[in-house]
Amino acid sequence: MQFFYIETRISKWQEGYVDMARTVGIGRLDFEKIRTENTFYIDKTDFIRAWWETKDDVTLITRPRRFGKTLNLSMLEKFFSVQYANRHDLFQGLTIWDNEQFQNLQGTYPVINLSFATVKEKNYEMTVSRINQILTNLYSANKFLMESGILDEKEKNFFASVDVNMNETTATMAIHQLSIYLSRYYEKKVIILLDEYDTPMQEAYVNGYWDELVSFTRSMFNAAFKTNSCLERALLSGITRISRESTLSDTVNEALKQIQKMKYETILVEKGVPKEKIHRYGFAFCGKRVLIGC
To answer: Can you tell me the distance from the alpha carbon of 94 to that of 42, in angstroms, rounded to the nearest whole number?
Structure first.
């Protein structure tokens, strides 16, 4: 996982004086709105340079909640996306605009930006349905591709098949295929931004459908981030490292199996403790993180 040193400074007027009269907007997640409404902003645009210069294909950033991850992804979208070409006004006066090389990058890439923040369902079927809706919205936002003349009939059929009721194979390939279409249209590889990638996995663990969702997510992420020849860069943000948490989950399960195999409750039963009052807990630690299963 990459760690960055990010230059931060208070956003300033062009004259160079700090504007202490600006409103401090709490909880704002849209970079464009912050800039156009002239609310107080701590300049973190050097993150763009730091991330880009790593030259990594895929970057995972894990930070606690309310740490500015969503706003940073919004900032990246507005900086790189062709949909924001010539929006120099959003970055003038900020650190990144001091670098002419990065001025030339602004608004030059097709960007796929999506978030799993709202995927908090109680079962696997509802989770997949919610993800399908997010993907459907993404395709709707790019429906101009259907009339662009760059898709053959099979590709048009795939595009049209992306809806809330699509099968899992279509869903897991949706980001991959959209990358192909956008890359062909703009003649440039795509940047993929995925916010709160781990929210569905947290819900899956709590509600008991972890194995099913891991299989679905693995297929989607493999297609989108590992075998995607049209990918320029990708950045995922969340609060957990899924692979490590899966290492913790496995450890908890092994602990519970050991408790059952070794019959540790025997001594309690022999002392007269009713079995229904005995609870088994497995603990797993990794640094400061702990996972408890029962």
So the answer is: 10
DSSP per position, 40-75: --EE-THHHHHHHHH--SEEEEE--TTSSHHHHHHH
9: which 2 tokens? 């400074």
d(CA 164, CA 156): 17
CB-side neighbour CA atoms (13 Å) of 266: 6
Q: Is 74 within 8 Å of 35 (Cβ atoms)?
A: no
Structure pTM? 0.74
pLDDT tens readout for residues 137-176: 999 999 999 999 999 999 999 999 999 999 999 999 999 9
Angle formed by the axes of helices 168-186 and 210-221, to 10°? 20
DSSP 201-260: HHHHHHHT-HHHHHHHHHHHHIIIIIS-TTEEEEEEEESS-HHHHHHHHHHHHHHHHHHH
pLDDT at residue 215 above 50? yes
Q: Identify whether the C-beta of residue 91 lies closer than 8 Å to the C-beta of residue 117.
A: no
Question: What DSSP assignment string belongs to 265-294?
Answer: THHHHHTT--GGG----EEEEETTEEEEE-
Who's near 23: CB < 8 A, 6+ residues apart? 39, 40
Contact 175, 134 (CB under 8 A): no
Helix axes 168-186, 124-141, angle to 10 degrees: 20
Q: Are 236 and 196 in contact (CB under 8 A)?
A: no
Tokens of 192: 């993929």
**pLDDT bracket for residue 254 (50, 70, 90):** confident
Which is higher by pLDDT, 2 or 183? 183
